[in-house]
Amino acid sequence: MTISVIANFYKSERYIPKLIQSVLAQSYSDWELLCVNDCSPGNDLAVIEKFAKKDSRIRIINNETNLGICKAKYRGIEEAKGEYLCFIDGDDWLEPDALKKMIEPAIEHDLDMVVMNHKKVLPIIGYARLHCTQAPVDTVIEINPHATEEDDARKNFVRYYSNFFGNSVFMVTYWGKLIKKSVITESGFTPPSSYIAEDFVFSMTIFPYLRKIMFIDYAGYNWRWGGITSGKKNNIWTGEMNIRRSNEIYMDRLQLIEKYSLNCFEQGLMIEQRNNFEGFIGNEAKEDAETEYGKSVIKVLNEVLQAGFYSDFLKLKEGNDKYADDELLDSIIARDAKRVYKYCRKVYKTNQMKRVVKNAIHTVLYPLAKV
User: Fold this and answer.
1) CB-based burial of residue 18 (10 Å sphere; 0-12 exposed, 13-18 middle, 19+ buried)?
2) Which residues contact 231 (CB under 8 A, 6 or more apart)?
3) How far are the Cα atoms of 66, 145, 203, 325 from residue 258, in angstroms, in the given order?
4) Can you tell me the distance from the alpha carbon of 169 to that of 159, in angstroms, rounded to the nearest whole number?
5) Where are the extended beta strands (E) located within 189-344?
6) For 113-157, what is each residue's pLDDT tens digit?
7) Distance from C-alpha of 178 to C-alpha of 12, rounded to nearest angstrom
8) Which long-range contacts (CB under 8 A, 24 or more apart) does 251-256 make?
9) Which of 7, 72, 87, 208 is 20 to 30 A from 21 via CA?
10) What's the pTM?
């Protein structure tokens, strides 16, 4: 059974050989590798072509314009010939048995999705941190959002759908999984115009259409620590896009809660949105509120906080001691943009050293890493 491995590249030429070689080294040989070159300005295409000339299983998809990460992946989905799909980010790589470990149970049990563990790797010193699922492993799990509340398949759906509302059970990424292509088609998934939270949108869209899944006790995916994504520089514009986009994501997820009668997740959704402000603006509050920069961020916050659903956040304080005296939550409920910014300014100062270390890893140490 053919697996379509989808990898999209943009300014990835340094990492492409390791990724492709990891696919060529797979113990399971019935695969095709779709290399989506998203109009990269570098030498990505030339590097891919060298490998494609040597193995016909490697197919190149060239985007004439830069589509962005989500739409680039979608082109791979559209072009895929395999019954199952496996995604790899442009700077990551697979262990030799990754495809075999996932496809064998998928075929045996006709699974819709197989999820494996992964390692977060810091190639500078060869350090790797293992990340394992919190779900039962190597067992078939049936899920169905439309079953009765007493049905185990319904209970399982609620249990694992909570993963999208703060209960971390498995990664919400495209990668690290084997997914039946027909499920994606049935779900009607279309790539969002924004690249922000694209993995979340994809996973939440297809999950209700899965019926049988399995988590396997095998770390077959290597996620590069400090790679292309984490190395992106934050600025007011990316921060603005994130916080605006968070409102849209909130409403999308609220509608899903209602659609599948999952009101138990409403508070978790509110908590996450509260944390979005702390995270996104906490990385952007570089200057005091009275400066021109501070005023520009506050202006954005003021617009974002006009969303009507913030009135409902008062529910989060009812009977919840943790948020009884939460300064940020109180500021959000009051729609006080300046007060939100001042709180996040304190967060920015507190996390100063973390940012210094992260920037040092990416700008100084990371270029020296073994690829």
Assistant:
1) middle
2) 362, 366
3) 36, 12, 18, 29
4) 9
5) 212-224
6) 999 999 999 777 678 899 999 899 999 999 999 999 999 999 999
7) 23
8) 251/309, 252/201, 252/204, 253/164, 253/165, 253/204, 254/309, 256/204
9) 72
10) 0.87
